[in-house]
Amino acid sequence: MYLRIKEVKLGYFRWARSVKSSGFDPATDSLAYDYLCNILPANFIGSGAWTSDHVADALALARNAEAVSWQMLTFRSQNLTTSANISAGKNLVTMEQFDLVVVGAGYYGLGAAKQYHVTHPNDSLAVFDVNASVGGVWSNERVYPCLRSNNLLGTYEYPDFPMTTKRFGVELGNYIPGEVMHEYLETYAREFGIDKHLRLSTKVVSAEHKVEGGWLLETQSAKDERKTPTKVFARRLIIATGMLSEPFMPHILGQEEYDRPLFHSKDFQKYRDTISTAKRVTVFGGTKSGWDAVYAYAINGVKVDWIIRPTGHGPVWMSPSFVTPFKVWIEKLVNIRWLHWFAPCIWGQDSGYHGIKSFWHGTAIGRLITNAFWGILAQDVINIMHFDTHPELKKLKPTASAMHTGTAFGIFNYATDFYEPIRNGTVKIHEKDLSHLSEGKVYLDDEDGTILESDAFVAVTGWKSFSPLKFLPEGIDRKIGLPHVLNASDEGCLPDEDLAAQNALVDRADKEIQERFPSLKTPMKFNPNYKRLTETKAFSMNSSDVSPRTPLMLYHFMVPGTAEFLRTKDLAFTGYSTNFSNGTCAHIQGLWISAFFDGKLARDPSSAVASESESKSGSGKAMSLSEVHWQTILHNRFGKWRYPKDTGSKSPDFIFEAVPFMDMMMADLGLLVHRKKGWFKEMTEPYGPEDYATINEEFATRFV
After folding, report:
1. What pTM does this model have?
2. DSSP state string for 624-674
3. Bigger pLDDT: 64 or 306?
4. The domain 99-245+468-488+551-701 belongs to what CATH superfamily?
């Protein structure tokens, strides 16, 4: 905040200097000198319009916590206090400053903080999270009754911190209870010293970018919003709030009269007492969280009315952990290299085997085989799930195409028979839209005017696709690549102003995707009666919250691909690409981001804007800015065709494309992509966390 010449009232500094006692010179004060060396560029003193005296005065004022915006400084009398303190040489309160701030203490946030911390042990670090405990979706605040991981033990862990049975008590072949997931992440933070840097129960409200680099953050107590917000300066910023942090919760007609607990599935833990107090509940929504809520109530004897609207996405795809006639573990199945060849993937350039992939997707006979693969896989799951064995179970049969489904895909991970409460009538499934609510009642939008008694209403209505954190200055979200509403003023803007608005590049990307993968030209099978939730009778929302937004537009799904941020290298996102290998991806992304900040990537997007001297001293291959723009648009546009009706159309969300994504990050880092011993194992053995356990050490050897 103190580097911008145009924000500084030089007249004020000269006046302040004139009233100082002759015995105090902050330019020679050791505290000031150290502070100056750490914060300002080495060549800053005496350069441009500032003299060393100007810098010294700025430094003294920067110690004043109230001087957060120099545009506010005037010659008014209240500044005499500041002047007097400068004159007396007092060590005024300093705004907290960190080399790195991570926003979000979930799986990805902790992974990024740890990777930065171990590669920059002397840098200052803070990890902010709105919850009072670490874990994100696995925090104490969100671990609802009966919650278990979709992964069996062994595939949901950081590569360098295995979740062992001895330490965490989960046996091989078992799902991981939510409480154990929280314990694991808490232990991870403690093991690597991240616990000392946590700032819990704190919400980061806004982040203002400074032209010379760095971020001014406004934070607010999550426990007491009456407290005055505080300012923090971050030299570098990682956003790790992910895609499951901000509930999409439209207003429901009549909810004011309902007078019963009505909550989003995110808050199930907060309302867990309804399991014992309610006699009959309503669960609205057919995604995995809906299945979980239904199960938690039903096994405790609570009657459940489960509403899955006929105008929606339909029931989510659910599968047991072992599929195909060979009973292959599904988390491993999707990470076998030869199987991912059947999935179209636009970022597979570093994975190799281009000839066989061209055959599968570029020839008519190859596409017949790949279509057969997806058909067999889908039918196998449907057969295993026994949807056709009972009239009520048929209502849970997915209607969307399996090939076009991302991580909305759920695992059938329940401890007892999920179907029994449905068969015995404890759970009643209603394929109806909602009409409205009244006191203790739910009205369906059907010809019969069905009325349901209801002691609690669980809204499984999804998540907002945009960050709850406000980025400043206004409009900077376009440069960053965050989802936003396009308007007329975006037409004709330059790529560095808004990549999502580059219609010519978007059209070119669409054309290339369809030429390389002709099967994606065929529209996916989808509900012909589909309506957005807020277009149905019961739901409404502020138009700004439901207006169509651009997809996420980040280079390799982690950093802005525009010149301003490639120069400052002070912003990154982690956890905005979801898959079945989140533990491994969190680990690799953390190292990738740390290397990006340091300019140590072997394939470095920031080289596109580097000076000649920086390019010569860089560790990797130089890129052009147009190349960075193109890759950013091409990769982020892929989801529109691969997952057109799923969350993958808004942000990277994929299953079979995870191994190529990890390949791409490894190539960026200059590390070995094919990590198995021998060609046969490379094609047939699944990739897991253990294959990436030593990447930190491997990366370090590049600079020895």
Report:
1. 0.86
2. -HHHHHHHHHHHHHHHHHHSTTSGGGTS-B-STTHHHHHHHHHHHHT--S-
3. 306
4. FAD/NAD(P)-binding domain (3.50.50.60)
